[in-house]
Structures are given as structure tokens and as C-alpha cells.
Description:
- The chain is built from 35 helices and 27 strands.
- It is of the alpha/beta class.
- The protein folds into four domains: 3-176, tt1808, chain A; 184-346, no CATH class; 352-383 and 521-701, no CATH class; 716-974, no CATH class.
Amino acid sequence: MNPLETYIRELYDIRSTGAATPETSYYGPLAALLNEVGKTLKPKVKCIINLKNRGAGLPDGGLFTPDQFQKTATEPLPGTIPARGVIEVKSASQDAWLTAEGKQVSGYWGKYRQVLVTNLRDFLLVGQDAEGNQVKLEAYRLAASEAEFWKAAAQPRKTATVHGERFIEYLKRVMLQAAPLAAPKDLAWFLASYARDAKARMEGADLPALNTLRAALEEALGLKFEGDKGEHFFRSTLVQTIFYGVFSAWVLWDKKHPRTDRKARFNWRETVWYLHVPMIRALFEQLATPAKLGPLGLVEVLEWTETTLNRVDRASFFDQFEEGHAVQYFYEPFLEAFDPQLRKELGVWYTPPEIVQYMVARVDTVLRQELDLPDGLADPRVYVLDPCCGTGAYLVEVLKRITATLRDKGDDALVGADVKKAALGRVFGFEILPAPFVVAHLQVGLYLQNLKAPLAEDAKERAGVYLTNSLTGWEPPQGPKQQLIFPELAEERDAAEEVKRDKPILVILGNPPYNAFAGVSPQEEQGLVEPYKEGLISKWGIKKFNLDELYVRFFRLAERRIAEKTGKGVVCYISNHSWVSDPSFVVLRQHLLASFDRFWIENMHGNRKISEYAPDGRTSETIFAISGFSPGIQQGVAISLWVKSGKEQQGAKVQFRDDLSAAKAEERRAQLLESLKDPDSEAHYLPAQPEESNKFSFRPGAVAAQYREWPKLVELAALSPITGYKENRGFSLIDGNHSVLEERMRRYFDSKVEWDELKALGTGLTNNAARFDAKKTRTKVLKLEKFDATRIIRYVLRPLELRWCYYTPIRPLWNEPRPSLFIHQFPENAFLVSRPSGVASPEGIPFYFLKCLGDFDFIRGHSYHFPIQLRFEPEQKRAGNNQGSFFKPDTTPTANLSAAARTYLAALGLPNPDAAPETAALIWMHALAVGYAPAYLTENADGIRQDWPRVPLPDTADALRASARLGREIAARLDPETPVPGVTAGTLRPELKAMA
């Protein structure tokens, strides 16, 4: 329960007794509220009611920190003054503002320097300004009058919904107000807290002017803010832009005001004077005018922000605020505290510095070694673009690398001017979101200031970072150029398009986005990724693929710009690693091989989606993991460097590195950086052999020499494999206890049992879900079927985990009843189970054997069933019931073997598999035996992981029968209900006794 809801409910209950005093009876709920909020802080804050007189009267309460108590004591140390101020409580009928102006509060303030005044419904903080004078600081109002308050208290949950988040944030700020403010992460928390308050005010406001700005941004950036999520994202972005604008202005203001000047005061209203980039200034002006801030109620919040910035210990703050790590120290903590859900959806905005340094250093080296540019990134002919620059980490690192090269050449006097020239004219960044765009300009500007080459205000100099959609504008528009509402937006668009169309970009690098932002739909160049889809279905037989992930679009952008337009250059990305070997990306890889000469790929591991483990057995962290930060990413990633030299080459070379496998991300990153000093660094890479047989995989394959020649499982079957059954009803149709399941289903099928009675049982059968209207489904089922005890049959949920299920083909009682699979379920039949590609590392054995029904997810990668025999329903019966049927078809089973498999068996002199069930099973039992052979799994690991397993076929009938016998033994061990002599039946085999 929200602490505010508890507080209001308790106040209301106390008042309802009719025995309460106007003030003191309510101390308990107030103290409980403050303690509940205080315990979430670091250090925790504790409220104690009724303090001793320390010479200024008897405050009603005080706020203490743990260091003011002995370890086991409940009372503070003798003589201790509350570290976070005192509390003055009045009845709900009194005016908190008048109380705050009274002698009593002034007396408390003189002693304690901070007083929280409350009448239970208003909260007003009395503190001190920068000169040490008494001043009213922040306030929060739950209700304007006593009558309104008690009316609201009658609905505590509704009141908490309206005020909860903002009010709790307010109390946190009150408790932290007296704490020293010097650490960047602490200031980030305060600004995020104010930003949350501003966002809450903005979410509830309907201001037409915001719609104008929204439309302008959508037009300029080629994106759409769609639905509720898009609206939330838009307003959240605006709030971030306001606060980063203010923060950036404060940082720049600090540069002009000596930190020894204790009278210097930052004024948020002057922010626009410190924002030199026209686009940023225009955005801020659109948001921060009185006409917009007034109706939104943001003036008050920005004044609180100003007060907080002016109480920062600037000397200590900027000592810690290493400008090269501004994002790590400030931006990430801000976003984490401001909007955790948005932070999660955006994924990683902060790329660890080791990754950035490594990638920039590798690009610099390759420019020197492969493109004959001895100064690397410092060469004035090298134009660099980060098309998804975020907060500017790669851009700043490129400028640092240029600085180092110029200093090594002895050009110290001109270094600043030369680096500034690069930042203005040939090191470019594109960003689609205003908030990180502001931070990128801040970071580049600060770096140039530190080089004593600041951007000139009067000359309107700006860094080459543009607010633009990287996926559009590379080709001239068809027809007249679109007119934009704000001239600054048009100027920004035109400047970005000049870079896209006219600058000879030689380097593209960065960390492309992994996911589209919820509610935001960016446009892209017409058919940008279509070339990567050509022939996927017709040539490669790949029907399911996802090539619309954002990072794939940035791959195509880089290929088109470097290989097809400039004709030479370097691409360096850190991205989702799926493209390296996943079958869906076969055409993409084929394209890149034709466009570039050399590739270096580093597998950075850390794939949390498949629960990847390091060689020592520990969990492999995502490479983005940093202590104290939530990376918000689960995919495994790879760093890739592509080079096109512009010279004639004999085929592309692909080098793959896989030895960066430490469990801890920090160790992996250190290992990566250390390799830059290794003169034999190429020895860490193994050559890949991309070719048609391995779908042009960029990963070296651990496969036997003949592996690619063996048939895949799917090539042995006449029927394409079918995925397992999906219940999705909270295990209401599945149970380990036959009797319990039978009783549950008898009730369900009993029309005399009312719906409310069924609901009271609390099973998934009465809970609505996607594509499942529970009540309508029951009505449908009762019309078509009656309870049938024979439908309670065995079901495998996980390997060796047998349960019972009640099967019916009627949709949607089962989410996926798979009638096309169930038709082959008869007592004499069985199923080999596998999957189309590996989804875990290590994966385990991707083969299984079943006689009963198997769950969709009972093996990793989803369970695909290969029936050993096929039995199809007669056409006349199928036509009469489109729900499928639960009966034994009267057709003769046939072997599930392809024409090639049948030809193979015939060549061995074996009988017709349709007439001989034992022959029909030979290949499948042989495949099961092979699949459990350790040597097979080890020697062919990469091939097995990439696709359906391939299986060698014996040359003789005797060898096939012998292998199939082993397969039957394995099948028996995989079936808990099949007795195995010497294992589960009879005398235990000697070698197993030690395990018993």
C-alpha cells in the first residue's frame, strides 16, 4: 500500500472514533508516514515525536540519521540535534503558512535551521537561502481546506493515486534538504525528483501549444508519437529537455563565475543565454515561456531546482564531475531516478568507456594500416559520423584520440584550434531524442573548453551534433522541401542533410539502438532493409525472420553510405550479435561480404536471454554491466569492425574472436582494452569461412569435416515438425494429480455449476487472457462437448516431468491445442523432438523422445515434434467438424519419412517402412542415439547451434539397426514409465550402485 494511502486511512479512522484531539492524536500516523519514506533513503531518516527542549522550545518531532544513535538504542545520543530538521504539527483547521510565519517556528529555525510545518494536509519546509536567511522553501498541499481534506480522506486510495508519487518525492526532498550536496549522483537525484514532479503536472495538463511543438518535432524528425505510450514518451522527453537545458546552463554558468564567489547566484530564467545551439535554445524557449510554464505549473518546480543548484558545493561537485564521464555520473542516475520504465525501454544510453575507447582506437589503427592514413582520425580527410550518438561518448573519444595524435606530433600550440575545427566540421553525431542531444552538446562543449578552445558565442559556433532522424534524408526529396513551423527546426534539418548528402563520410561508428521506443515510430528511407530480405523465403526457405530491428537499419545505412557512396571507409558498431550467425541474417551477411574487404568481430558474450555461462560456470554478465547501474539490456553483443579499402581484393576475410569470456563484464572490458597493447593481437582471432553451406556465417564453425554434407532432421521427415501444445491457462488443464484434475474438469463441464462458483475456485479457466474470453469459452465448450475421462492423458511439462492433462481440441480452451499434431497421437506411435536452432549457452542436448503429449516449451528453443508415423483424419470426418476430433482415425499409419529417406532405406535393402513400423522408426531411433553421443555434440557444436541438427546415416543396414537399438535404450531412459532392466527394474547394474 502506498504510504500516503496508509497515512490518510489512519487519520480518517482516528477521526471517525470521535475521541481524537485536534492535533496530538494524529502524531502516530504522521510519524509512521515519515519513517516509511525515510527508510528508503541512504542514509535512512528516522522520525522521533516529542523532542526535549534544547533551548528553543519543544518541537513536535525531529528527523534523525543513523549516526545519531548508538547501535541498539531507540533514542538519539544525548544532546544530539536532528540532522534533518524538526517538525511542527498543527490541526487540520489551522493555516500552515501563518504558523510558519509565527514566533514559535522562527525560534525553532534559529536553533535547528530547518522546520517542516504541517497541518496534516499542507506541508511547508522552512529553511535557509544561500545567505543563511530564513526562507520558505518547498511546499505540498493535499487539500485546500479542512473540509476538503476530510472529504478526500474518505477515499484514501483515490487520494493516494492523485498525489502519491509527487507527495512521497516531496517528503524525500525535505529529508535530504539539510544533507550536504556535492556528489553528482546526489544532485542528479534531486533534479530527477523535481523532473518527476514536473512530469506529473504535465501529464495531467492539456495545453494546445504542446500539440504544436509535438507536430513540429514529428515533421522535423520523421517520427510519430503514437497512442498513450507515445504521449507519455513525448512529455517525458520535453521534461528531460527542460531539466537538461537548465543543468547545462548551470554547468556553463559555473565556468564564468569563480567558485570562490559565494554571492554568485544562478537564475534558471537566464538559461537560454547559455544555450548556444539554436535548436536547443528554440526547444527551451518553446517550453520555458511563461505562457507554457504557467498553465503547466512548472515555474514553482524550476524555482525549487534553482534553489537546489545554488546550494551545491560547486568546488566539490566539479572535482568529482569528470566531464569525460558526465553521463555516468549524472545522466544515467538522473534517468534511472526520473523514469525507470522509460529507462528500461530505452535500453543502454551509457556505453562503458572501455568499449568506446577500444572501438575508437581500433578505428584509428585500421585507418592507418588499411587505408594508408598515417594520422588516423587526426587526418583532416577523415569525416566521422556516429548516427546514433546519444550523449556523445564516441564523439568525445574521437576528439580525444585526435588530440593525442596531434600532441604526439608536437603541435601543442595549435592542438586546441585543430581539435575544435574537427568538432565543428568533420566529427558529426546524429540523435533523434532531444534530451541526449542536449547532453551531447554539453559534453563536446566542455571538452573543447578544457582544451582552451571554447565555442565562440558571438560567431555562433556549434559542434557537429544534429537533432535528426538518421534513417531519413540521405537522398534529395521528391518535390518541394517540407516547410516546418519553427525556423530553427528547418535550419537543423538542412544542416543535417548537408552532412548526409555532401560530406565524404569515411568512418561510421557507435552503439545503434537495439529496440524501437514504445510509442515512437521512426520513419526510414524507402525500403532501407529490403535488400536484406531478398530470397530469404524463395532461396533459403526462411519464413520467420525479424530484420526490422533498429540496429539492422543502421547496418544498412552504414553499408550504403560507406561502400556504395564514399567507396571506401570503416564501420565499427557494437550491436546485438544475432547477425553474426543467425540464419535470418544470411542475406545481410552476403551483402556485407560483397561490400567490404575485411571484418574483425569480438564476441562480448553476456547473453542473458539464453542464460549464458562463462567457462568457470558463473553467469556471464552483459558487457554493459557497471556497478550501481542497471544496463537494461539482455542480448548478447558483438563488436564488429568492417573495412573497405577501395582497392582490388580477392574475397573478403572474416576474423572472429571468442576468448573474451570472463564472467564479470569489468574483467572482459579490461581484457579488451589490454589487447590494444598486444603486438600479436591478431593471434586472438580465428578465421571464419562464410559460404553458402553455412549460410555465410561469420563465426568459425566447430563442425566435423563432413557435417555440412549430412541431412538435417527436417530433410528426413515427410511432415514438417509441429511445435508442442500450449495451455496458457495457469495449469488449470494440467496437474500432477489425476484425481484433482478430474474433479476440476467435471465441475467445469457440469452445466449445473454456476459461473460464480467456478470463479471462486480461482483457476485459470475463469480468468480472461489474450484471445480467451473465459465465460464465452465455457459456453461454447458446453455446447460442443461433455466431460470425458478418457481425455485425461499423460503430458510432459519439462524433461522427465510427467503430469496429466485434460485435452480437448476446442479453441480457445487450450491456447494452442495443435489438432494437426494430436491426430498422430496413438498408442503405437512416438515422437522425436528437437528445435530449429540453439537458444542457450550451454544448451544441453537438443534431442528428446516422447510417447505422450509434449509442452511447447518443454525443451529450450520450443519443442518441435517429428512423429515417427503419420495418421491423417479421413476427409469426410474432417469436413464435418472444424474443431478437430478426439478419436482414433480409421486410416493405416504411414512412415514419416521423406522421399530421400525412403530411397536411403531402400538402398540398404530394408522393407517398406509403411508396412513395417520397425523400419519406419530406424532412422529416428538412430538420430536419437547420435544426438546423445558426446563426441557428436562436441565436434559439431557450432553447426548444431546454428540450425536443425544434421545426422550422419550409416552405410549398412546392420549399422543402422545397431545404432537404432542404442536409440531405443536412450528412449526408454527418457520415459519415466518405461521399465529399464538394470536401471529401474531388476538388479541394479554394478556401475550405477555408487549413484544410488
